[in-house]
Design a protein that fits this description.
three-stranded antiparallel β-sheet, 12 strands, 10 helices, alpha+beta, single chain, 12% strand, 313 residues
Length: 313
């Protein structure tokens, strides 16, 4: 886990996450990480081409071996064993070294972007492997800048938050920098010191985080954070940290529907969090319901399936 992350604070909020609505259930109502939060905190595009490509796992494995320019080490459909590809992911450090060794500029750029995105926006629980699905969106470098990376990162974080709520889950992944910075933006009680940044700089880089201790210290912090959240009132929240024009400044944040990254599709409904746009909260409409949902305690199989094509959604 990265040293700047306060795992106790993150877990205190995970305990309040409701995957059916993709919102945190607080004593005073619902809140969520929205697209305008991603825009301000990370400064990556939240509008653009939908990242919906979802190739078969065998195709992803072949793509990985094509990327590192080594022969396939196992049969298609069989069990793969390779120093590059293991347990559904590609080895991160080995990929970066291989990209430099090949001295092919396009592949060097592709492997660098793969490493960068896999260690920031789409972090895997393994810590040393990257999700192969990322590479699908990097093969055509002319299209990279046109993707809605912010919406994809948010969909992936929603999914990881949902999985972390299961009783069998022991950790969480995804862009936890986004989650922790979001907490700092809205909840002054948890904020560390802040440094002055340029107006268009990512707000995540403005927070001065020290190294957080684990073990007993983390458990004590978790107990304290739980009590603080239990006693919190709506007046303790900074509802519009970026100003009252969040909805008009970042129009995609008003979108209602499904956001996606590869095989991950999650519902997005800002109407449940009107106060984050500076409006009075009304009783939310009926929540968005997927066609099929399976969220077992073990997280071995976690399914959220939406009816209709992604283009229609």
């Amino acid at each position: 886990m990265m040293q700047h992350l306060d795992t106790a604070l993150i877990m205190a909020f995970v305990e309040r996450w409701q995957p059916d609505t993709n919102t945190f259930h607080m004593p005073f109502g619902e809140m969520s990480i929205l697209l305008h939060d991603v825009h301000h905190i990370l400064r990556i595009p939240v509008e653009g081409e939908l990242m919906r490509d979802d190739p078969h796992p065998d195709v992803l494995k072949l793509d990985m071996h094509d990327l590192v320019r080594v022969p396939v080490d196992g049969p298609v459909g069989g069990k793969w064993k390779s120093k590059w590809f293991l347990n559904g992911g590609i080895h991160a450090e080995g990929l970066l070294v291989r990209g430099r060794e090949m001295k092919i500029r396009d592949l060097e750029v592709q492997t660098y972007l793969f490493m960068l995105l896999g260690s920031t926006l789409f972090v895997d629980k393994s810590r040393d492997r990257l999700r192969p699905a990322i590479n699908v969106f990097l093969k055509d470098q002319q299209r990279v800048a046109g993707y809605a990376w912010g919406a994809a990162a948010l969909a992936y974080l929603y999914r990881q938050l949902g999985m972390a709520t299961r009783v069998g889950s022991k950790s969480i992944c995804g862009c936890l920098t986004l989650l922790q910075a979001w907490i700092y933006e809205y909840f002054p009680l948890f904020r560390p010191s802040q440094i002055l940044q340029a107006p268009n700089a990512p707000r995540a880089s403005s927070w001065v985080c020290h190294r957080f201790a684990g073990g007993d210290d983390a458990r004590q912090r978790l107990v304290r954070y739980r009590q603080m959240l239990d006693e919190m009132l709506g007046e303790d929240v900074s509802w519009t940290p970026y100003g009252r024009d969040a909805g008009t400044e970042v129009l995609p944040s008003l979108y209602t529907g499904v956001i996606r990254f590869a095989d991950v599709a999650e519902g997005y409904d800002p109407a449940r969090c009107r106060r984050q746009f500076g409006y009075r909260q009304t009783i939310p409409r009926t929540m968005m319901v997927p066609k099929d949902v399976y969220r077992p305690a073990s997280c071995s199989t976690y399914i959220v399936f939406w009816e209709g094509s992604m283009d229609q959604l």
